[in-house]
Inverse folding.
């Protein structure tokens, strides 16, 4: 770490520190103000279900603008180039639109407080317990990624040891989450969204100027290791790990675009929680759809800087050519900031990175404390206590989750490309959950026993693929192991769920109204759909259609 410190140290001055200090003042101030609106557990965990769609929509996308998007996608841009856009245009937007149009009426209409609670109503306690525990574990692991990268920025800026930086960074996030709960997280995420864009857009513009514009970048990337394949999104062989163009496209569309993407966006409570905080059904449905519009343009301020760093920074170019050196792909943005930005703009860029990691970690912690409190502690450990008890418990759970995240940050530090790590986690937890969820929502015959059997077997299958890949039994470079693992988990989950359902007893139809699509009256799904939300531009299906059309157009332009 000493070598990395000396290479990546950012030459910040007083103006940079002032900008950072102002940002933290706003962040903590929002937490303090949000605390005044918290009077019960629903306020703390779900913002009292009172927020407008534009707030929850921006928070929805900002919650995902953590380490995964900023450093992880920049690292992917440096390593793979334009195929990384698939994480946005194939691996996010279609699923976000599906969540808003099809699934949010079930989540919001059932008035559940979490995704695991929806699983409880559909499949019963065993599936609920498996889902709640696996979700909680996943969140502290992913929070560790955000925390490690947040600490890396503090380390580079101040020269503090990583362990001290991890603790300080954790305390900052912990302070405003324990004060104001989800409202503090959401309003800070809206602030963080604008800070992130204000930081990364100038970096992209300056970087493109440095390489001679878009054509200059094309020429330099073509001449670099990986060549011109990095300039086209399809077929994306290096990213998928397949040498066959056909198999690569299948892997991206099915593994990433369907299983991993739908598994993440439609069942991940980190994201769904923002929509569930909306003021009514229409706002809840529009939340992920509104988020899809900025989502489709994020690649231009995240992936492009990574590609620029890989061709203008000698140490990163050396790492890409030889696989060794004092830096790795995760350092792409830091190197670009160090080399290109003047003071003042450097402070804004650092603030943008801090904002992104805080948004990601806060999202993990706010969903972790909800599931731990509502789905595990209240349901199985300490039952039937006054509401104030669970409000206090939620704050203490946040503290515990932060301490665990400090430990899991050490795991994240061992990966040269953190997207490899994150996608592996998603194949473990999200892919089997999506299979169980989607089958249970559209097939009334699926039973409670099939629910937990499918989850456990799907997760075990993804872990088995990972182990085989790590030991060289199957050769899946890039992120092929996570794509194949996710696909295998999905298929195994579906097959075993069908078999088990056919030999066990399903619930009665009357118990599944509001939980299964075919048994739920359309009036139930549309209830309150336009209450206080008139105007064509507030119609969820129309907005989703516009978003999908723009996404298809982008795939053609950059394909």
């Amino acid at each position: 770490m000493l070598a990395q410190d000396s290479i990546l140290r950012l030459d910040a001055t007083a103006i940079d520190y002032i900008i950072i200090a102002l940002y933290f003042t706003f962040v903590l101030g929002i937490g303090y103000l949000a605390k005044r609106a918290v009077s019960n557990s629903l306020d703390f965990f779900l913002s009292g279900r009172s927020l407008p769609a534009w707030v929850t929509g921006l928070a929805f996308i900002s919650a995902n603008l953590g380490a995964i998007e900023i450093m992880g996608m920049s690292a992917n841009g440096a390593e793979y180039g334009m195929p990384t856009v698939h994480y946005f245009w194939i691996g996010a937007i279609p699923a976000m639109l599906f969540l808003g149009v099809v699934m949010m009426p079930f989540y919001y209409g059932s008035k559940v407080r979490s995704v695991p609670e929806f699983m409880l109503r559909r499949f019963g306690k065993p599936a609920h317990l498996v889902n709640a525990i696996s979700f909680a574990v996943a969140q502290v692991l992913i929070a560790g990624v955000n925390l490690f990268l947040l600490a890396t920025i503090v380390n580079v800026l101040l020269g503090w040891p990583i362990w001290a930086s991890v603790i300080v960074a954790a305390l900052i996030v912990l302070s405003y989450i324990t004060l104001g709960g989800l409202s503090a997280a959401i309003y800070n995420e809206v602030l963080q969204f604008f800070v992130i864009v204000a930081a990364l857009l100038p970096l992209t513009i300056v970087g493109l100027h440095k390489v001679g514009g878009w054509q200059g970048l094309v020429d330099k990337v073509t001449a670099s290791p990986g060549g011109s394949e990095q300039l086209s999104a399809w077929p994306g062989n290096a990213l998928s790990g397949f040498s066959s163009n056909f198999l690569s496209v299948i892997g991206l569309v099915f593994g990433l675009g369907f299983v991993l993407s739908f598994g993440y966006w439609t069942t991940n409570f980190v994201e769904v929680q923002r929509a569930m905080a909306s003021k009514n059904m229409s706002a809840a449905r529009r939340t992920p759809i509104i988020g899809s519009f900025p989502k489709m343009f994020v690649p231009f301020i995240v992936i492009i800087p990574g590609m620029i760093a890989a061709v203008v920074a000698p140490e990163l170019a050396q790492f890409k050519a030889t696989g060794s050196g004092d830096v790795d792909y995760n350092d792409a943005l830091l190197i670009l900031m160090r080399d290109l930005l003047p003071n003042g703009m450097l402070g804004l860029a650092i603030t943008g990175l801090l904002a992104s990691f805080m948004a990601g970690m806060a999202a993990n912690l706010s969903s972790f404390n909800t599931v731990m409190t509502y789905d595990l502690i209240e349901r199985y450990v300490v039952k039937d206590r006054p509401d104030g008890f669970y409000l206090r418990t939620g704050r203490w759970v946040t503290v515990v989750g932060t301490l665990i995240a400090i430990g899991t940050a050490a795991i994240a530090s061992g990966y040269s490309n953190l997207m490899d790590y994150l996608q592996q986690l998603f194949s473990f937890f999200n892919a089997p959950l999506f299979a169980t969820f989607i089958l249970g929502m559209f097939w009334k015959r699926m039973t409670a026993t099939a629910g937990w059997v499918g989850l456990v077997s799907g997760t075990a299958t993804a872990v088995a693929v990972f182990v085989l890949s790590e030991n060289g039994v199957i050769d899946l470079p890039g992120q092929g192991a996570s794509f194949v693992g996710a696909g295998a988990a999905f298929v195994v989950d579906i097959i075993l769920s069908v078999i088990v359902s056919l030999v066990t007893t399903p619930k009665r139809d009357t118990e599944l109204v509001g939980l299964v699509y075919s048994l739920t009256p359309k009036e139930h799904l549309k209830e309150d759909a336009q209450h206080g939300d008139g105007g064509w531009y507030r119609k969820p299906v129309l907005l989703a259609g516009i978003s999908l059309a723009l996404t298809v157009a982008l795939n053609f332009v950059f394909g």
Notes: Residues 162-210 form the longest helix (49 residues). The chain is about 75% helix and 0% strand.
